[in-house]
Amino acid sequence: GAGVSQSPSNKVTEKGKDVELRCDPISGHTALYWYRQSLGQGLEFLIYFQGNSAPDKSGLPSDRFSAERTGGSVSTLTIQRTQQEDSAVYLCASSPRTSGNQETQYFGPGTRLLVL
Amino acid sequence: RKEVEQDPGPFNVPEGATVAFNCTYSNSASQSFFWYRQDCRKEPKLLMSVYSSGNEDGRFTAQLNRASQYISLLIRDSKLSDSATYLCVVNGGGSYIPTFGRGTSLIVHP
User: Fold this and answer.
1) Which of A110, B10, B11, B56 satisfies CB 3.0 to 4.6 Å to B105 for a cystine?
2) What are phi and psi of B3, to 5 degrees?
3) Which residues of A touch B44 (CB under 8 A)?
4) Residue of B7, B34, B39, B43 to mutate, testing the A interface (most A Cβ within 10 Å of its Cβ)
5) Which residue from A minimizes the CA distance to B105?
6) Can you tell me whether residue A72 is helix, strand or coil?
7) How confident is the model at residue B2, as a pLDDT?
């Protein structure tokens, strides 16, 4: 079946511009996560959505970052007034979140963001 | 102390070698554990879950030591295609947010 998809795959933008990154999770998956990964670094958690619950935004690095998830499916991560340090790969993952914590995350291919 | 720690490597081994990685975690209430594999410029993919009793999948064996709070991954008969970064993931302990280690780099050479 279809996996997690993300768009665009690559994005080059100028400092100060806003960008929107999109994630389409696997159908039926209730949990959705956004991470970012800088070159040679580990995954940095950004935000977590679970069903209709309020998202866990504890990982967002600044108020320039926001995300929404419409209809419990597609999610958009928005970065306003981009800075060069925002350059990274932004990864989205979904999971079925069936019970407990024993769940697998399925990652999308990521969006490579470069801020000039 | 970081929540999940891994030796970044790289581990540079010849084909056919056996190699083992460890990963330590700080939250004793953690409940689930995984190893993911990430190829260069690709997304992470699940390699295997780690069960309390230990589990094996072909050439890969994962172990959990709750007393010492670490998990391990053993790869036997290494292949060139095993070259990748191996990420340790720990979940639970009061949060639904998985914690990723920074990964251990493995290079298998001919």
Assistant:
1) B10
2) -65, -40
3) 43, 91, 105, 107
4) B43
5) A40
6) helix
7) 66
Residue length of chain B: 110
Other CB atoms within 10 A of residue B101 CB:
27
pLDDT value for B1: 55
Amino acid at B109: H
Q: pLDDT tens digit string along A39-87?
A: 878 899 999 998 888 899 999 999 999 999 988 799 999 999 999 999 9
Give the pair of three-digit tokens for residue B105: 């780099």
Q: Is A109 close to B32, i.e. CB distance below 8 A?
A: no
Q: How far is the C-alpha of B88 from the C-alpha of A42, rounded, in Å?
A: 11
Q: For chain B, how many helices (H) and strands (E)?
A: 0, 11
Q: Are A24 and A8 in contact (CB under 8 A)?
A: no
Chain B residue set in contact with A, beta carbons under 8 Å: 31-32, 34, 42-46, 49, 87, 89, 91-92, 96-103
Q: Which amino acid is at B6?
A: Q
